[in-house]
């Protein structure tokens, strides 16, 4: 394990960045979820799931025995010692543990050709579980729904909040970069695509809307992740072209929701390069990560400070808002203390 400490002064206060684990250099991490202020779980390739109960000082490593050689691109906490892990491609699996990872059960399995699950979202208030996957029909996203009280029962959704599912372009898809291309609560759902086109789809009981997002012509570009804070009514979309990690073109959108419609807000500047993950810390504080490094804003995304050029796929702030955990390729797990 190596430790790297950087003390960075930004916008009149300091953050501390450190690499807290790099033991498993052959593993790529993309899944990350907090159980409480000091406990979190990570997931990645080679059947790897990790857990820390002390804010990242130590880790225990788990390899679920019910499946082999899965890439767990996303992981979610649904209760104390109760997690869901998403194994992405055919056969795709959703695994559940109720004892903190000691034992796992398959709660969903799909071996259809072309099956690829991208992200899972759990809304603790409504108890809804939503999974998005690449299209199995040319004009629709593949959506699974369940609840935290009935995790063995999954439905293939034809609609969200009564609105039919749609894709404008049959070559739109979902990037499984950070497990963060959807948001669902008891009132609304947001799903973002990339590929040939990049669109943000918004579903409410009052209707469905599509918002076209600018992108480069490359099929490897578009939006990769989103975060929305309903309390402060602020949302961010991040992406770019993952084959051009230093290109900042179309890598950030900021929005709010007003009277049932999304309103996009201009930024004065943009973070550096391709970004795959975003976490909202407060009304004005936001952190983004990607192959090009980690950037931080304290003024709602108008100005950005680079924290590190180290590459990460996913970033999530702790429930007490005191630090951000980052996970990436080559077994790297980082921490920014705020």
Automatic annotation (TrEMBL):
It comes from the Bacteria. This is Photosynthesis system II assembly factor Ycf48/Hcf136-like domain-containing protein. It comes from Algoriella xinjiangensis. The lineage of its organism: Bacteria, Pseudomonadati, Bacteroidota, Flavobacteriia, Flavobacteriales.
